[in-house]
Design brief:
about 5% strand
């Protein structure tokens, strides 16, 4: 059985590192259908959608399910399936492209730039809130539940150890751990 220290540890170095990360451009679009994270930490090839659209979808994914401790590569991995699906379904491709265009148009009207150019997360979330009842937003939100949270690398970030059936189940593996309850 493992013991979890659930207190947040913020050092001066970590604070400065993460505070600067939000202000820099996170996603870049490179010629030839490549979308890349800042500093080249991750990249993906886009085959069907416009690379700018995919970059916007990755930013939308981060704003829809924000986890500061998750790297952008996990959001990109969750969104790449939409590019493959759009290659097989013209209606889906049209919905995704028009949805991204709607995000950019709304951002342009409110903030004078595209969705990815809106600097404050709060302002991007307000844009998403304005379209949350539409099919585009619901499609992305619903797909992210499995696309993001079904990645084994993400499980470790949340302290989930994965399936337990092959290890004898949860009963003998911390099922009754209640370290969160004071004695």
């Amino acid at each position: 059985m493992r013991t979890l220290d659930k207190r947040t540890k913020v050092t001066r170095r970590r604070f400065l590192k993460t505070a600067g990360a939000g202000t820099a451009g996170i996603i870049a679009v490179v010629n030839g259908g490549i979308v890349m994270g800042s500093g080249g930490a991750w990249a993906m090839e886009v085959k069907t959608l416009r690379p700018e659209s995919m970059a916007t979808l990755v930013q939308m994914a981060r704003d829809t399910y924000p986890h500061d401790h998750l790297a952008d590569k996990f959001y990109a991995q969750a969104m790449i399936g939409y590019d493959a699906s759009a290659g097989e379904d013209a209606a889906l491709k049209a919905m995704l492209e028009s949805g991204v265009d709607l995000l950019d148009a709304t951002a342009q009207a409110r903030h004078g730039g595209g969705y990815r150019d809106v600097a404050w997360e709060e302002d991007r979330v307000a844009i998403l809130t304005s379209i949350e009842d539409g099919a585009f937003f619901q499609k992305i939100r619903g797909g992210l539940v499995t696309g993001l949270y079904n990645q084994p690398e993400v499980w470790a970030k949340f302290g989930y150890e994965g399936a337990s059936a092959e290890k004898g189940g949860y009963i003998s593996r911390g099922f009754d751990d209640i370290d969160w309850l004071e004695a």
